[in-house]
């Protein structure tokens, strides 16, 4: 046994011989044996040392055993210490009773039987050790309880602060008793003190906004009646003082062994501030859309007469090189501005996912050819070389021809803009499994490696405007990515770095089987369609330059043309002039284009007129409103001259089909 594991046995007797005999008897226990020859000496030992058992002689001078025991028991430290009295004289029943009353645990008479004394002391030593162990365990348990209590208090405080910070609270709905417990945070949301009402489910439902009640209650009922573990929903509740509060409610269903719902425990958060922020954001987004639409309209209006004037100059034929070059510069810049205006509107469509594809069965070569034609002026202006390689067999797609043309046009324009004059561009397409892969490559300024992953983000520009002459809004590649995605494809960019050129790779799904593409309608016979000199056209626009320039352009092509400056004049002129085609601006004074179109359609002579909306308003909503007002065609300013000629040369039925791609 280690020294530290031994306990102390204090032997008290005024006779040294007895102390020696006790020591001999108890030595076999292998404990610490301490001698004291008087009561006073015993007290001194007790003040210094913990003692497991006291062996005390009753008859001692100065301080006998009974008096010593009484003094020991008064000390809190030794109230439970085992005291064994030993006496050769005081061994009557009265003496024993007195000893037990003073706290003795045993009373041994002399002569002492060694085995009995040793056994009794051993029992009390074992009891002492067990008592010490229990006290140690109790102290540890008390310490742990204190720690857990402190941790629980900290956790509760943290939870309270968290629920206060999130402007919410907890609830516990007992379905069997229909009682509803609410935390302090939840009480604050409703404004009703916890002790003012005995809330139940109907009390709660009565405070839900009528517009949200059905959705909220049905959603909860569906979860309770199914095996779903939880639900979450948003709705409005009414505060005691009247205002409606938006809340987010997430509840977990507690079920019994049979799966029956017994309780719903959940938390509710006040999300009124978030809802208000969402509303403000939607309002700001709406104002932005309105601003972009108005800005686009205001920019398109002056572009229309400029484009018309350029086309008039071109119809007059070559004049002299400087004049012709200046005219072409104006035409290119008008086209550039028109693309920027279209990009402004596409920004809104991208952010709101409002792209509307008109998919049909088509060939890849159609979109590529149209894109090359659209990009050719910029490519030629920069003196680039363009190499095109397409598969020898037709590649059939299901896509929007106009939008896919826009994809490849943007890629070619991007390469042309960011490649120094005299550069080399290539467009290569090949089949890979069930996809067609189109690669547009250049040897231009390249893309920094750190910019590749951001290249398709809205408004991102890999190159600094101050160091690059070419501008743009930074939405072209974002449009490409979104349009390709809507066609079920992917797009990625590659570049070895600055001045190392770039490669944009578009992957699109191919139709598995060849398809028969629709054949274009044969031109109408002279018996069915009037010639150009027979057709009469009315142009109505409050922008005098726009109306007169378009009228002049149409007159030079042989049409009989009249003009009007507002909707009222347009209807009156049409009633007398009886035109075959009417171009109507939308935003005119006195009577707008929508009202004028409706009035013309109401007249017997206006049933079969080809009504064309020529306007700066170009959103999908504007197109729908035009169709509802009776327009056959919706065109945005400035109008493409070639598209205009194609439209006028076609029959009204064909013109309506052509307008879908304009």
Backbone shape = elongated
Strand order of the largest sheet: 2-1-3-4-5
Integer count of domains? 5
* CATH class value of the largest domain: Alpha Beta
* Quaternary structure type: single chain
**What fold name goes in the CATH topology slot of the largest domain?**
Heat Shock Protein 90
How would you briefly describe this protein structure?
This protein is an alpha/beta fold.
Give the helix/strand layout.
Layout: E1 8-12, H1 16-26, E2 32-36, H2 39-48, E3 53-57, H3 65-74, E4 82-87, H4 93-101, E5 106-109, H5 114-165, E6 168-174, E7 179-182, H6 184-190, H7 201-205, H8 210-225, E8 230-238, E9 244-255, E10 261-270, H9 272-315, H10 321-352, E11 360-363, H11 364-381, E12 385-389, E13 396-399, H12 401-417, E14 424-432, E15 435-442, H13 476-486, E16 490-494, E17 502-509, E18 536-540, H14 544-556, E19 560-564, H15 567-577, E20 581-584, H16 593-602, E21 610-615, H17 620-629, E22 633-636, H18 641-649, H19 652-659
Parallel strand pairs: 1-2, 1-3, 3-4, 4-5, 12-14, 18-19, 18-20, 20-21, 21-22
Antiparallel strand pairs: 6-7, 6-10, 8-9, 9-10, 11-13, 14-15, 15-17, 16-17
């Amino acid at each position: 046994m280690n020294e530290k594991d031994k306990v102390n046995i204090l032997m008290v007797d005024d006779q040294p011989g007895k102390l020696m005999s006790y020591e001999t008897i108890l030595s076999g226990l292998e404990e610490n044996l301490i001698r004291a020859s008087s009561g006073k000496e015993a007290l001194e030992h007790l003040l210094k040392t913990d003692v497991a058992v006291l062996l005390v002689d009753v008859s001692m001078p100065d301080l006998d055993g009974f008096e010593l025991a009484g003094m020991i028991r008064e000390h809190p430290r030794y109230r439970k210490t085992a005291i064994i009295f030993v006496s050769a004289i005081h061994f009557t029943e009265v003496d024993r009773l007195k000893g037990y009353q003073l706290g003795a645990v045993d009373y041994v008479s002399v002569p002492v039987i060694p085995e009995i004394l040793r056994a009794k002391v051993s029992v009390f030593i074992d009891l002492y050790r067990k008592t010490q162990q229990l006290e140690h365990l109790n102290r540890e348990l008390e310490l742990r309880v204190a720690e857990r209590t402190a941790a629980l208090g900290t956790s509760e405080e943290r939870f309270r602060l968290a629920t206060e910070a999130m402007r919410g609270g907890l609830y516990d709905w007992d379905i069997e008793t229909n009682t509803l417990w609410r935390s302090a945070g939840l009480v604050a949301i409703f404004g009703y003190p916890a002790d003012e009402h005995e809330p139940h489910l109907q009390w709660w439902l009565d405070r839900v906004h009528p517009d949200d009640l059905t959705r909220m209650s049905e959603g909860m009922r569906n979860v309770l009646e199914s095996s779903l573990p939880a639900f979450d929903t948003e709705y409005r509740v009414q505060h005691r003082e009247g205002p409606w509060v938006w809340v987010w409610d997430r509840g977990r269903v507690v079920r019994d062994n049979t799966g029956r719902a017994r309780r719903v425990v959940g938390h509710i958060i006040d999300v009124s501030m978030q809802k208000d922020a969402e509303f403000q954001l939607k309002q700001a987004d709406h104002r932005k859309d309105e601003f972009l639409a108005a800005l686009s309209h205001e920019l398109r209006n002056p572009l229309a007469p400029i484009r018309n004037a350029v086309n008039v100059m071109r119809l007059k034929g070559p004049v002299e090189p400087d004049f012709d070059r200046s005219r072409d510069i104006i035409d290119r810049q008008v086209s550039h501005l028109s693309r920027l205006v279209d990009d402004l509107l596409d920004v809104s469509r991208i952010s709101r996912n409002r792209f509307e594809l008109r998919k049909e069965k088509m060939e890849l070569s159609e979109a590529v050819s149209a894109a090359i034609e659209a990009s050719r002026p910029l490519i030629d202006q920069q003196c680039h070389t363009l190499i095109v390689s397409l598969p020898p067999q037709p590649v059939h797609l299901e896509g929007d021809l106009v939008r896919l043309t826009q994809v490849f046009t943007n890629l070619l324009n991007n390469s042309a803009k960011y490649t120094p004059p005299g550069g080399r561009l290539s467009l290569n397409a090949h089949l890979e499994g069930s996809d067609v892969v189109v690669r547009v490559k250049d040897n231009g300024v390249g893309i920094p490696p750190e910019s590749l992953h951001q290249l398709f983000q809205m408004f991102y520009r890999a190159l600094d405007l101050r160091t690059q002459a070419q501008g743009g809004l930074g939405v072209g590649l974002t449009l490409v990515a979104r349009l390709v995605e809507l066609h079920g494809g992917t797009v990625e960019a590659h570049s070895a770095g600055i001045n190392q050129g770039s490669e944009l790779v578009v992957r699109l799904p191919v139709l598995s089987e060849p398809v028969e593409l629709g054949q274009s309608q044969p031109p109408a016979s002279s018996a069915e369609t009037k010639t150009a000199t027979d057709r009469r056209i009315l142009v109505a626009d409050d922008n005098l330059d726009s109306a007169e320039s378009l009228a002049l352009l149409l007159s030079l092509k042989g049409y009989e043309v009249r003009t009007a400056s507002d909707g009222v004049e347009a209807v009156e002129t049409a009633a007398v002039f009886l035109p075959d085609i009417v171009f109507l601006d939308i935003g005119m004074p006195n009577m707008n284009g929508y009202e004028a179109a409706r009035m013309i359609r109401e007249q017997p002579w206006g049933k079969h007129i080809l009504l064309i909306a020529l306007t700066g308003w170009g959103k999908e909503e504007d197109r729908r409103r035009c169709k509802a007002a009776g327009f056959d065609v919706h065109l945005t300013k400035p109008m493409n001259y070639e598209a205009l000629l194609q439209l006028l040369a076609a029959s009204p039925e064909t013109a309506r089909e052509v307008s879908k791609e304009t």
